What we know:
This protein is an alpha/beta fold.
Amino acid sequence: MRIVAIRECAVAINSTQRNSRFDFRSMDTSVVAVVTDVVRDGAPLCGFAFNSFGRYNCSAMIRDRFAPKLLAADPAALLDDAGTNFDPARAVEVMLQRERSGGHAERCIPVGTLELAIWDLVAKVEGRPLYRVLADRFNGGQARDVVPVYVGGGWYAPGQTPADLAREMKGYLAAGYRMVKTKIGGLPLAQDIERIQTLLELVGGGQALAVDANCGFDRERAFAYAEALAPLGLRWLEEPCDPMDYALYRELSEVYPHALGNGENFSGNRELENFLLYSGFRPGLDVIQVDPPLAYGIGEYVACLATARRHGFGPESMYPHGGNLMSLHVVAGLGLAACEAYTGVFGIFSGFGEEVTVADGHATLPESPGIGFERQPALWSVMRDLAGVH
Ligand code: MG
């Protein structure tokens, strides 16, 4: 049992939408295929993943630095003790050989993406969906039956009118979603508040609406938005400022009475620990949004859960960034709060595939072995060609 090839390709997101700071015209992501010598149904068993969204591809790092380490390793060094399945933690150990301390942001995405692909393999070897494997290993066998989901939408788009935004949100509600998130910070404050008021009428109250500033505010603007948003009682205010600005988060947490969100740009457990030590984040209120493929993978995410718990944040505070099958499995298997959903804004990466249905704010779970990209047709055609399997 060994990895025989690791292939990657960069795929364009094909989107003109923008957040408070930049548009996605040139955004792409890396898709990886980890090919093994295990044969199932006449074809080599392959693990797949991609590096979430909004961070560009990490193909060169995978191709030049981390895939060669996995391919050069003693095959037994990548397996569990029994030698009967791959071991993602050991794969990470191999990838981190001869790597300096610190420097996490440089490598957390390529390593995390490969780690997710190896989890896909692990679950496929077991013949079970990934969330059930994660539940058994990390959550006492307890998996969610359905997963609370919310839509990461409400982007700014060229020529967009308030009516366009309302139409978009009505579409999400009609599709079975109950909570949505919209971008803020891409317009002057008064116009953003107008957008939010329109959405509040549609979704039926502040607890069904979160807002995301994508780190776009300086100190002055962060306080202006905090003051204007406070009376609206929104579900959370995500990334108002630089994710590493602990001091400003602390100041905001002292004046803003509702939940703040942060974490999607953390490189892993060490950054989460520092943030929780110094930011004034409030247990039971604020939400943590670390994204596994962007932060060394699921093993690191499990360490993040332990760190969060030590600081008073239980699974109900954990909302992994990234509306895709990878985060859906993580939320279901580890019993976390909710999963993001991107229904149609990220090209072939949009949605959860044909096995998952959404009703009354909850998503069903895929039952295919592994992550289940095989049942997400447009994405699968890219992955299948990459791996050379049919
Ligand atoms: Mg965000």
